[in-house]
Amino acid sequence: MEIVRPQNRRNLLSSSNEAVSAPTIPLYRSAPPLEVRLEDFESFAIDRLRVLKGISDGMSRGKKAEEMENLVKDLWKVNMRHQEATQVLNKDIISHFVLRLVYCRTEDLRKWFLSMETALFRYRFRLLNAEAQRTVMEEFDLPYRAVSNVEFESIKEKLGQVARSMGQPSPTADAIFYKVPFEEVPELVAGRRVFINQGYAYVAMNQIVSLVATQFRSQLSKALILTNRKWTSSIREQEKHRLTPIVEALSSSYLGPDYSQSREYADISLKDIDQVAKSSFPLCMRHLFDKLKEDHHLKHGGRMQLGLFLKGVGLNLDDALAFWRSEFSKKVGLEKFEKQYAYNIRHNYGKEGKRTDYTPYSCQKIISSTPGAGDHHGCPYRHFSEENLRAALSGMGVNSQAMEDVMDKVRNRHYQLACTLTFEALHGMPCDAGINHPNQYFSDSQKILKPKKDSSA
Amino acid sequence: MIPQQEPDFNLNHLKLYYGKLFPFADLVRWVSYGNDGKHPGCDQSYIGRREFSFTLENDIYLRFQSFHNALELENSIKEKTPVKIDIGPVYTVDPAKRNAYAQSGDNNVFAPVERELIFDIDMSDYDDVRYCCSGADVCLVCWPLMTIAIKVIDTALRDDFGFKHILWVYSGRRGVHCWVCDGKARRLTNEQRGAIADYFRVYKGNENSHKKVSLMGAALHPFLATSYTNVLKNYFEKNLLTGQNLLATEERYEKILDMIPDESIASELRGRWQDSRRSSSAKEDINVVRWEQCKQLLQSGKHKAQGLRRCIEEIVFCFTYPRLDMEVSKHMNHLLKAPFCVHPKTGRVCVPIDPKRCEEFDPTTVPTLSQLIEELNYEGSRADADGESNRTSLGNAITLFRSSFLQPLLKACKEEIENSYNLKLQQSKNSLGW
């Protein structure tokens, strides 16, 4: 891909007629031999980012597959059109490659981009007709054959069991199944949505999307690593005055703050923590905090979710160690704490192991977690039963009118909106931006509560 | 109950154990996966890239230890006398030298590349479904929960996922560990490991939400159906129901009634059970009687409505189905205690368990450190220094490790190494033969 300056206006991509209405999805295998105007470079990328951001929001609200499908369809229609029909495909390809550059640069950026692009690919694939789907499959060149009639007959009963376990009718004799190594379809394995025998998963035609999405993901994952190498070894320096500033601005403008460096570092100290927990912790953290005080213990998921949150809130390492020690030592004893748990806390602060400074969890991450028996992490709006959620909310002081509004959002799976309404009910102030991050909840709350205190003092 | 305090777990005994009994050679042959051979296809760097980590007596934790052969490992362990030995993943480079590589700038150099697929099942995760003991304690009444776990997971690993080289080990106190060692299993990505762990997961939610097990749909997935009919149902009805007295008292049966979504059925059963103390005959076990009533009511024709259909199964799953520590299985870089370690709290050796005969395994008769030392002293007086472990009760455990796990594994590894070497040879020949 070659980027040309704005003044260098030429007729771009003359021989594009065959690509006008490609019925399929590009696989972005290699950068296209196109020339791109600098302003398109940026504006195409921003348009695609709007799509990816929309997908990310949809997923964090826990939208179902069909809802996501419609969402992606709309997002794509609104953001990715182009006044020249011939340019639609080019815009798709160019924007992808620009964002690849933007999001190749750190592990976190790569991870986000990889999941959003894969989700985009998945839903676009689902929207294709059967013939177009087969074309995409052929392009991947997958070495899998459809299951023969004889084999189908021998496992028909099991395939029927799987289908019925998902509330679908049993497959008929003309149904097509592919027999693939189970490693190729992890999400179907994880959801027990396939019959697995002797290492092979039997994938129904309407599940093929999982197979191609996994392929897409693994190819993109490898490509991102290569792009990163190219970026650090040459592009960043070569493009110091032209693309690099754009690339660097693009990622930060849309990801939102990650709260990894608390601006008010050491703003909160150990003696205030009980009071602050009551006034300014979102329910997910309040619950963990209360459980920790009650049980003097939290399992791994809870320690991570609360520990990183507290770091983001501004608890320094020494205070964090003191905090966890004072609780855990009541249950497991001082010695075991120092041996088993202190390492992890230092690890979270980047003082042990890889020495990565871990970032606090966002709402999206918390909502998509899967707490099990004995766990207390996760998003209460999503993971609590209605009864327990009501009890927890009234414990926080949410009144009955606001409670119904919150429960209404919960029923529609708008967990972050439910949290936002809770915030508004407790603070008596609107929260227009909505809650996207527990640390944002905290800092917004402090912003409201702190000035009051100062003026009364 | 297993006594919590083994009075003579001491470092001198442990030293003697490492000196005379611990099967270093077997352990290293295992984690070398055939790469310690002379075949030109062997990867000589393989064993040296494996992380071991030691916990010393004063809670000093030594991570990223690496060794090039059994002798190096043996010398280091004899010198340091760790109270616990953990095995980590195989990395891209020698983990002991990771810092040197980290300085080269590219931070992707030091990363795990291979790791057995592992499972950790811990009795303390079953505290809400066992009444005999809790926390770190186990006894013969609750141990069947572990037997069930081994049967269910082992069968699925073999039949569904096609794995063959699976090692089950007693964790020394309250649970079991599982090591899946097939080449394919060792090279799974974290995502694929997570998928397998999730395949085994039926518990949704926790004490903050309602249901512990939720089985939807008009049928059970074949894996769950097979587990239910072949293992869970029998163990529930023939063993745990009466062993744990699951329906004997009001507090206990209320827990099960709580899981019935239809309030009228639950209260009908409650009514019957509150009165039944007077009318019940002494002949039949009260738990069995009540369970039959529960089944009869829930599965009778008029109640076959949606939601109730799976209720009996849900109750059985809740009280029997294996509870895995998911995080251990999902990530390559998780450490797991090596077999044949001695648990410092119980003094018991982490011996292998034969999955084919796991119902015979008795955690209360696993050899302890002091018992082994005693046997050693006794045998020592006979002045026969050859193969000391064979003369102690550890001998059976080591024989089992070799015959049922190590030998078939190494045979498969040898074939794999030869095949991939021949393939490579073939390819290079083809590229030359114009």
Brief digest:
The complex is a heterodimer of chains A (457) and B (434). Chain A is built from 20 helices and five strands.
Any overview of this molecule?
The complex is a heterodimer of chains A (457) and B (434). Chain A has 457 residues and is mostly helical. Chain A has 3 domains: 21-139 and 213-251, Transcription Elongation Factor S-II, Chain A (Up-down Bundle); 140-210, no CATH class; 272-449, no CATH class. Helix content of chain A is 61%, strand content 4%. Chain A has helices at 38-60, 65-79, 88-102, 107-127, 130-140, 149-165, 186-190, 208-238, 243-255, 273-280, 283-295, 300-313, 317-332, 334-348, 363-367, 380-383, 386-396, 400-411, 415-427, 438-456, and strands at 2-4, 35-37, 177-181, 195-197, 200-204. In chain A, the strands form 2 sheets. Chain A has a 3-stranded antiparallel β-sheet, covered by helices on one side. The longest helix of chain A is centred in the middle third of the chain and has 31 residues, at 208-238. The termini of chain A are far apart. Residues 6-22 of chain A have low confidence and may be disordered. The termini of chain B are far apart. Chain B folds into 2 domains: 6-120 and 165-198 and 325-425, DNA primase, PRIM domain, CATH 3.90.920; 222-320, no CATH class. Chain B contains 16 helices and 9 strands. By secondary structure, chain B is α+β, with helices and mostly antiparallel strands. Chain B is globular, with a radius of gyration of 25 Å. In chain B, helix 1 (11-20) crosses helix 14, helix 2 (24-32) crosses helix 3 and helix 8 (222-243) packs across helix 12. The longest helix of chain B is centred in the C-terminal third of the chain and has 39 residues, at 394-432. In chain B, strand 6 and strand 7 (175-180) form a beta hairpin. In chain B, strands 1, 2, 3, 4 and 8 form a 5-stranded antiparallel β-sheet that branches. Chain B has a 4-stranded antiparallel β-sheet with strand order 5-7-6-9, with helices on both faces. Chain A binds chain B through residues 158, 160-162, 164-167, 182-183, 186-187, 189-192, 195-200, 225, 287, 300-301, 335, 338-339, 343, 370-376, 380, 383-385, 387-388, and chain B through 59, 61, 108, 125, 128, 159-163, 184, 188-189, 191-192, 194-196, 198-199, 201, 203-210, 212, 216-225, 323, 326-327. Chain B: One of its GO terms (cellular component) is alpha DNA polymerase:primase complex. Chain B: Its EC number is 2.7.7.-. Chain B: Its cofactor is Mg(2+); Mn(2+). Chain B: It comes from Glycine soja. Chain B: It holds the Pfam family DNA_primase_S.
